[in-house]
Design goal:
Elements (H helix, E strand, L loop, with lengths): L1 H18 L6 H16 L3 H23 L8 H40 L2 H7 L4 H39 L4 H9 L4 H27 L5 H31 L1
Helix pairs in contact: 1-6, 2-6, 3-4, 3-6, 4-6, 4-7, 4-8, 4-9, 6-8, 8-9
């Protein structure tokens, strides 16, 4: 088991070494980058906004019903919700969700290219297939994730305002005061830093599983599943380490 894990890690590092080289044709690279930014980033915007809206609303309701007590200031609800969204949800949870949506898409797309011998054709033509295929996806994902995190935070706060206004769980001035109370800007920036690492994990790990597919269409499906599982595990593991480093 350990030997297999070390072999996989070595293959991953060698692939990343081939990936991060200067593109052979910058014009083609930037066109691919724009297409990947649209496919991986923009097409994920709706699900990020929708899920963040309802999570923000649910957090507000859960804190009011199960955490808040009469002896606590009412603004505590908004304060606690803000900390959860900034520190964990908008970075870690959203990236785990994207690992399922984006990661499986990357692994399946590249895996299909492998089994249909498109990658072999690029290698025969003298093209660095790793850089040609993986680098635009990785850079697009890393550059799109800060925007997705920003929309996630804003949507979560809007969801809290809507549920407080509609359900009467908390007055809007109290919620606003709680969101602003004792704000530490580093909490926001640490979420951005973590999300950049998670975005790299999603794109590179999913690309690795797709690029190294051996077999037919069944193996492509397995690669998609394995990429989602491994990306999620690595996100949680790196979240633990980064939280200690950034917040310690």
């Amino acid at each position: 088991m350990l030997r297999k894990s070390l072999h996989t890690l070595g293959c991953y590092l060698l692939l990343m070494r081939r990936t991060f080289v200067r593109p052979q044709r910058s014009t083609i690279f930037w066109k691919q980058y724009a297409r990947e930014f649209y496919n991986l980033g923009y097409n994920s915007l709706f699900i990020v906004i929708l899920m963040s809206f309802f999570i923000g609303a649910l957090l507000c309701v859960q804190i009011k019903l199960n955490v808040w007590a009469p002896w606590m200031p009412r603004f505590t609800i908004g304060y606690a919700m803000r900390e959860v969204i900034l520190l964990e949800f908008a970075s870690s949870i959203i990236c785990i969700i994207l690992a399922g949506k984006v990661g499986s898409n990357i692994a399946s797309e590249i895996g299909t290219m492998r089994v249909t011998q498109q990658i072999d054709a690029l290698d025969v033509m003298g093209v660095n297939s790793a850089s040609y295929i993986l680098l635009p996806k990785i850079l697009a994902m890393v550059s799109a994730i800060p925007l997705l995190v920003t929309f996630s935070i804003a949507s979560g706060f809007i969801g809290a305002y809507v549920v407080c206004w509609a359900g009467g769980y908390l007055s809007l001035p109290d919620l606003t005061f709680g969101l602003q109370h004792d704000y530490v800007s580093w909490h926001l920036w640490s979420g951005y830093v973590k999300s950049l690492v998670f975005a790299f994990i999603i794109a590179s790990v999913s690309g690795f599983y797709g690029y190294t597919v051996q077999g037919g269409s069944i193996e492509v499906g397995k690669a998609g599943t394995n990429s989602v599982v491994m990306s999620s595990v690595l996100i949680l593991f790196s979240d633990l380490i980064l939280t200690n480093l950034l917040m310690g």
